[in-house]
Amino acid sequence: MLPLNFYSGNVPSMTKAILYINFAVLATIVNLCSQEITSRVVQNKYELFASIFIGTLAGLLVKYLLDKKYIFNFTSSHLKKDLTTFFLYSLMGVATTIVFWLTEYTFDVWFETKLMRYVGATLGLSIGYIAKYYLDKKYVFIER
Q1: Radius of gyration of the chain from Cα atoms?
Q2: Is residue 40 within 8 Å of residue 55, measured between CB atoms?
C-alpha cells in the first residue's frame, strides 16, 4: 500500500486509480476486521446481521475520509457542507451496499463457512467500490 504522504496536489489518473484501489483494500480490511470482532462479541442469531452492519459503518467512515481528501481533494468550508457531503456519500453507497450485503449473505448461505462469507464480502465490496467511484465523482464531490 502507498503511504498517505505520497499524495501531493493534483494526482495523475493512474496514481489516483492506484490510491483508490489501496483505499478500497484498506476499507475492506477494516470492514472485515470489524465484522470478525463483532462476530466474536455477538453470539446469537443476529450475529451475521450485526457484524455486517458494524463492518459497513467502519469501512464507510474510513473510505469517506480517505476518498474525500486524497481522491477527490474535497474540502468543506463548514460543518453543514461536510455533513451534506457525507450524507450524499452514504446515500450513493446504498445501492452498492445492497450488492455487497447480498453477495456476502449469499456466500454465507451457499457455503456455510465464515471464510466463504468473507470471500463473498470481498467480491461484493469490490463491485460496489467500482460503481461508487463513478457515483461519487458525478454526484457527491462536486461544488454546490
Answers
A1: 16
A2: no
- Separation of alpha carbons 130 and 141, rounded Å: 16
Structure confidence by residue, pLDDT tens digits, 119-132 = 999 999 899 989 99
Residue 11 has pLDDT above 80, yes or no: no
In this prediction, residue 143 has a pLDDT band, given cuts at 50, 70 and 90, of confident
Distance in angstroms between the alpha carbons of the first and the last residue of the chain:
33
- E-strand ranges in the chain read none
| Nearest in space to 129 (alpha carbons), one of 71, 84, 66, 63 | 63
> What are the C-alpha distances in Å from 92 to residues 13, 17, 100?
22, 19, 13
Minimal CA–CA distance to 28: which of 83, 139, 103, 80? 103
Q: Which of 39, 34, 26 is nearest to 114 (CA)?
A: 39
40, 42, 43, 45: CA torsion to nearest 10: -130
- Residues 2/66, Cβ–Cβ less than 8 Å: no
